[in-house]
From TrEMBL:
Pfam families: Cytochrome_CBB3 (PF13442). One of its GO terms (molecular function) is heme binding. Binds 1 heme c group covalently per subunit. Signal peptide: none annotated. The keyword Transit peptide does not apply. It comes from Methyloradius palustris. InterPro entries: Cyt_c-like_dom, Cyt_c-like_dom_sf, Cyt_cL. This is Cytochrome c domain-containing protein. The keyword Membrane does not apply. GO terms for cellular component: periplasmic space. Transmembrane segments: none annotated. Residues 69-149 form the Cytochrome c domain.
Amino acid sequence: MKNLLVKATWAFLIVSAVLAVGTAIAGIEFRGTISGDVLEFSPDTDGPETEAVKKFKETGENPYDGNLESAKAGYVIFSTACAGCHGHLAEGKLGPALSDDYWTYPKNETDKGLFETIYGGANGMMGPQRGRLQIDEILHVISFVRSFKDGKSEAAPAEHHSEE
Ligand code: HEC
C-alpha cells in the first residue's frame, strides 16, 4: 500500500516536471484581447527575431521600456501607424487616448497585454497590427506609449501639439 503511494507520488512529480519543462521551452502564451484565443505568430511578416523580440517572447516584458531612443523610434512608427486614429500625441481621436493611465482593457497596463491588443487587435476599427508592423516595431511603439508621464512624453516633438 505504501509502495503504491510512493509510486503515485513519483508519477506525479515526473508529470509535473515534464509539463514545467514544456512550458519553459514554449515561452509564454499570448492571447487575443477580445477572443482569448492563443495568438499564432506569423514568421513571414513578424520581422527579425532581434534580441528584444526574443527576450519579450520569453518574459512578456518589453526590453525597450525606459529607453528614450527607443521611445523616439516608436513615436516615428506611431505617427504613421496609429496617430491617424489615436492622435499625434496619443491623446485620443477616433480611438481612445493611450497617453493617460485609463485602459478600456485593464490588461494593457502590462506590456504583454498591450502587445496582445496591438498585435491581435481589439473591437471595431482597432484591427490587428500583425502583418502591418513587425514585432520589433510594436515593441518600439509600446516603449513610446510607456514614455508618457502626466499625458506628456519627451519622445514626441513639442511642435506636434494637437492642432488637428
Ligand atoms: C483605424 C483606426 C485605428 C488605428 C490605425 C489604430 N487604432 Fe488602436 N484603437 C482604435 C479604436 C477605435 C479603439 C477602441 C477599440 C476597443 O475599445 O475595442 C482602439 C483601441 C486601442 C487600444 C486599447 C486601449 C484601451 O484603453 O485599452 C490600444 C492599446 C490601441 N488601440 C493601440 C493602437 C496602436 C499602438 C496602434 C498603431 C500600431 C493603433 N492602435 C492603431 C482605432 C485604431
